[in-house]
Amino acid sequence: MDILTFRKIVTDDKADMLYDIGTTWSRIYEYPLVLEEIAEHHPQALTVHNSSWGFLDVHALFKDKLDAKYDARHSDLRPSELSDTFVYDITQPPAEGEAERYDVVINVSTMEEVDFDHWQIFQNLYAQVKPGGLFVATFDLPGLQLDRFEKEFGRTLAVNGTAVHGNNSLVRNRKYRKLTCGIMTLRKDA
Fold first, then answer.
1. Between β-strands 2-8 and 180-187, what pairing exists: parallel, antiparallel or unpaired?
2. What pLDDT, on a 0 to 100 scale, did the predictor assign at position 23?
3. What SS3 class is residue 90?
4. How far apart are CA 108 and CA 118, in angstroms?
5. How distant, in Å, are the alpha carbons of 119, 129, 133 from that of 189?
6. CA-to-CA distance for 58 and 36, rounded, in angstroms?
7. Domain map (residue ranges) of the chain
8. Which one, of 186, 112, 180, 125, lies nearest residue 152 by Cα?
9. Alpha-carbon distance 188 to 169, whole Å?
């Protein structure tokens, strides 16, 4: 595995106010960063699995962005009647036919929310990436079991600027003033 990005999201990162619904302090940074990572590191990507996609509001806007550009599928624990969605529990290995199926697998700020071994969740999602493909995830801190990822990756999470949090985001949400976000992008060995 090639670790392309493993860092905190910072105030200098590009934000997209399309994802502003008044409280989405981190999504305005996370969604554009995920799209940038795909464009930079896998511009020929066709198939995308947007895991734990979230259903409503800004999540549906991001789904629409992905659907417009990729052959995208979106999974969550709950069923959806929207197109190209399916039920998948990220604590479980991929179902038959899902292993090494996608050019890119995305997980936006969900791994850390699940009361489970986050490294195992990562393994379940990473197993769905085709050789040469990408895994792109964002995550809240504290939240993600960061020590394990740093140990497995053999590096510490980089901080190249002022970490975004609820108090300094372009969309302020003081409830999240003690949270920061990170992003990881990994390429699966071909």
1. antiparallel
2. 87
3. coil
4. 13
5. 18, 10, 8
6. 17
7. 2-187
8. 186
9. 32
Tokens of 155: 């590096």
pLDDT at 143: 96
Determine the Cα–Cα distance for residues 167 and 122; give it in Å rounded to an integer: 29
Strands 85-87 and 71-76: parallel
Cβ atoms 56, 153 nearer than 8 A: no
Query: Which one-letter amino acid corresponds to residue 62?
Result: F
Tokens 């105030």 belong to residue: 11
Could you tell me the fold of the domain covering 2-187? Answer: Rossmann fold (3.40.50)
> Using CA atoms, how far apart are residues 81 and 85, in angstroms rounded to an integer?
7
Cβ atoms of 37 and 9 closer than 8 Å: no
* 102/121 Cα distance (integer angstroms): 17
**Mean pLDDT, rounded, for 60-80:** 96
Query: In the 8-state DSSP scheme, what is residue 57?
Result: H
Token pair, residue 187, equals: 């390429």
